[in-house]
């Protein structure tokens, strides 16, 4: 009994010494309410309340001092993580490079243009997947330009090589598209590619929905990476909402009524009437009823008065 009461009041924040003193004075069989009253009478306060009551001297920091409190560190981390509302980006490196090279040359400069575009928007999680054999020297059947860009992006932990090896002189290549879709799906991000990944859509219904909703197409216009402003069509979200975790709903656009002033629907009309901003939008039938209702009521009152 003593241990259970001790644990109970310790959870409330009271010190063990004060609790033991009160239990010695009142006895082990004292009620919890009596123990609590005695603790209050002694002036004992929970540690949480004492810490709140004491003014924190760490709030004011002298100008020019380098010391930071834990709270300020947490704030700085939250402020620095400004990309928390932006989705992770997973780029199909082969698709982007070949598109920039007009499907003839593997242009690494196209990958750099795409990465820079998302960096300028504030995205911090950017991954580019490229097959490992692209590290090899270029050949006539697979020309590569600006190959040093791949090394620079790999040092920045942006580029990821999908594995490949040679068996009896033949190259065995892992399916890099599966890496791209899997990482983007797990990170709840966006896939940057002009490929539709139809074979992967047929494998997994969840991947099918994800690819349909999170695939960002693009174009290169004079060495300029340009994704569309409406990635999912005219009636879909804007590019900013598509790339953000918390999309902002668009402002409602009111369509003007095609009948204009001749409209007889009144307040039941679903369209916008600029001429009725400061008027009660009543239909013609409701206006007539409102006008007829007054004399009818007056007539009924006269009849009731005359009947006696």
Automatic annotation (TrEMBL):
Annotated coiled-coil segments of the chain: none
Name this protein carries in UniProt: ZC12D ribonuclease
GO cellular component terms given for this protein: cytoplasmic ribonucleoprotein granule; nucleus
Known cofactor(s): Mg(2+)
Keyword RNA-binding belongs to the record: no
Leader sequence residues: none
InterPro entries: Rege-1_UBA-like, RNase_Zc3h12_NYN, ZC3H12/N4BP1_RNase_Reg, Znf_CCCH
Record-stated family: Belongs to the ZC3H12 family.
Keywords, alphabetical: Endonuclease, Hydrolase, Magnesium, Metal-binding, Nuclease, Zinc, Zinc-finger
Domain C3H1-type: 251-276
Source superkingdom: Eukaryota
This protein's record includes keyword Transmembrane: no
CDD domains xref list: PIN_Zc3h12-like
This protein's encoding gene: Zc3h12d
Alphabetical list of Pfam families matching this protein: RNase_Zc3h12a, UBA_6
One function term, GO molecular function aspect: mRNA binding
Mapped zinc finger ranges (C3H1-type): 251-276
